[in-house]
Write a structure and sequence with these properties.
171 residues; mainly beta; 4-stranded parallel β-sheet; 3% helix
Amino acid sequence: TLSGNNSFSGTKTLLTGGLIGETATSLGDTTTNKWLVNDEAWIASHAESAEALLSRVDSASTGTLALSQNTVNQLNLNNHTGLYIGAESGKVVEYGVAGTSEALAAVNRAWHLGGGGGDLIVNYLLTGANDLMLGAGEHSSGTVHLANNGNNFTGSIIFNSTGIRFSYDEG
């Protein structure tokens, strides 16, 4: 956990484990060098929105952006095609509004969900011939629960980790 006002601006890489920013300035200066989150790592913020945290993450990241609180706005991952959305360890977090008919946007014909150690409840609709990729790396953990009973995607479900649990509501 990082707290306080940190101004470090050099290279920032998370190889494994998790990192939580307690304040908006605790993750350092990411103007030039953003956080590169490896597939065995996750990053979260207790002080910023998910959108603001995403802007601090390097686009080449393959790990997990772990939500710390319910997030009603869909994150645009078009520039972060290898990043997963998960939930911070010890937290139960909803992604999207319960009962929504809004579809979750797939990136490169896939949704990347899970990791961070917490429970992610996905309220968005998953539809189309896209794959559901669960867990960023071999040691990712947490639960992904698809809560929208209108889900009708026809792609594959692929577990990338033995630590990911998966459940869904069927319509």
